[in-house]
Amino acid sequence: MPKTTTKKSKATNVKSVDKTKVLFATAEAFPFAGTGGLGEVAGSLPKALNKSGADVRVIMPLYGAIAEKYRQKMTQIFVTRVNVGWRNQYCGVFKLENDGVITYFVDNEYYFKRDKIYGEFDDGERFAFFSRSVLEVLPALDFKPNIIHCNDHATALIPTYFATEYKHAFGYEGIKTVFTVHNLEYQGCYPSFILGDVFGIAEHNRGIVDFNGEINSIKGAIETADIVSTVSPTYAREILVPDRSFGLSGILYRNKDKLVGILNGINTEEYDPARSKAIAENYSVSDMGGKRACKTALKSECGFVGDKPIVAVISRLAGHKGLDLLKGALERNDCIFDGIDLVVLGTGEHYLENFFKGQAAWRGNVATFLTYNKDLAQRIYAGADMFLMPSGSEPCGLSQMIACRYGTVPVVRRTGGLADSIRDCDESETGNGFVFDGYDVDSLCGTIARATKLYGTPEWNALVKRAMLCDFGWEASAREYIKMYEKLIGD
Ligand code: GLC
Fold it and tell me: In whole angstroms, what is the distance from residue 226 CA to residue 107 CA?
């Protein structure tokens, strides 16, 4: 017999049944904790999806570093214990609604009260615990998702656990899994002996995660998720060929029918030169005076003199981000460096940190900040003239979009999301930057020279405006995600 319900609750029920309900699992999300692109996306995509009518909630670890102001507002909703191989660990679940998004936090201080999000000696165990916890606590949440949307290696065991242990269990009926690759370079690889001991995966399922004699968490997710998505259409094509896939092209090719590429957006409220409190003076496309003030402020912060174009790099300092090329250009003392100032912000591989620190010490026109500081990043986006991203591979890249928004013209290599978001102004009247193909020092320097030649002309000013007017908000991408979710739920 049907339950008696009041009119009001009936209406609410109908609405919630209609909604696409997604549990978005991630190891990082701003403003709580993050190290880069994934944190940015997890901090803004769910909000955009909710605005478009879905009900998306985030689940992430409760790191020790999460600020007290957020902790104070959380409520504990659930406590249980979770198996990690033979271990049985405490697992608390906290809940917080912030800025239009509900986030569930998985608590275990032994695993998450650490200095770093990634790079601890027992990352495999920490993220196996998190992945297992997401599935174990799910039936007890006040939310029954149609889809679990997992992101990158730290949550890559979820689709494998789900397919092998939970899919047919009570409380999990009809749930589908999506796995998004934000960067295929990091695959969550571990020695094969931890399969049962730490991951609790049965020996007969070893084949799902086994790759070249190791356990490869991402390979397992590609094999078992219902959809594998990545963060730009071009990257989705590129990873099907061996030299861009870090070994996984064969596995991806076999699963290519479930591979989708959706370009990321950026948080246009946070990255807005007209409203940002982090920059020297606000400006907009119709009133650019503030950008000159921001440049003057940046010049004094960097110790630059004269009035050359400022070229900025804000990046993880890694070879494949194209910083090897920039290093090569500086080492050969290319003449482009006579005509520009260069500011580098980021942390990363030691040889690159040392190199750029050294360059700043002996060249007056190079400034290096070895840190990850969002306010300083905004001051650089606002004060610079050009933004350099010579990446060898780039799944999406957000900085080139942020740079556009600040009227800082991107100079990028045609790869992944850079190819999908930046058009060369010499190739198209609607161009919003400079694009080159060859992964070599000549192509890099030639393109910076091309940009420097245009700098200061009326064409340059028009280019700056076109870049600022590009729409890189999340709305279009959110619509594509929702279409993808709806199709999956309907399948
Ligand atoms: C990773 C990728 C970057 C992408 C970001 C968000 O950091 O390297 O290209 O924009 O994830 O998806």
Answer: 28
Predicted local confidence at residue 126, as pLDDT:
98
pLDDT at residue number 18: 65
CA 248 to chain centre: 20
The Cα–Cα gap between 9 and 16 comes to 11
Looking at ligand 1, which residue's alpha carbon is closest to its atom 3? 397
* Nearest residue to 263 (alpha-carbon basis) of 239, 243, 236: 236
Cis geometry, peptide bond prior to residue 31 (ω within 30 degrees of 0): yes
Q: Is residue 136 a contact partner of residue 122, using CB atoms and an 8 Å limit?
A: no
Which pLDDT belongs to residue 36?
A: 87
Local confidence band at 244 (pLDDT 50, 70, 90 cut-offs): confident
Residues near ligand 1 (Cβ within 6 A): 36-38, 41, 182-183, 231, 264, 394-398, 417
Q: Where are the alpha helices (DSSP H) in 174-288?
A: 194-197, 206-209, 217-224, 233-238, 249-254
Q: What is the pTM of this model?
A: 0.93
Q: Can you tell me which residue has the tokens 């250009």?
A: 329
Ligand 1 pocket mutation, candidates 179, 180, 186, 264, criterion most atoms within 8 A of CB: 264
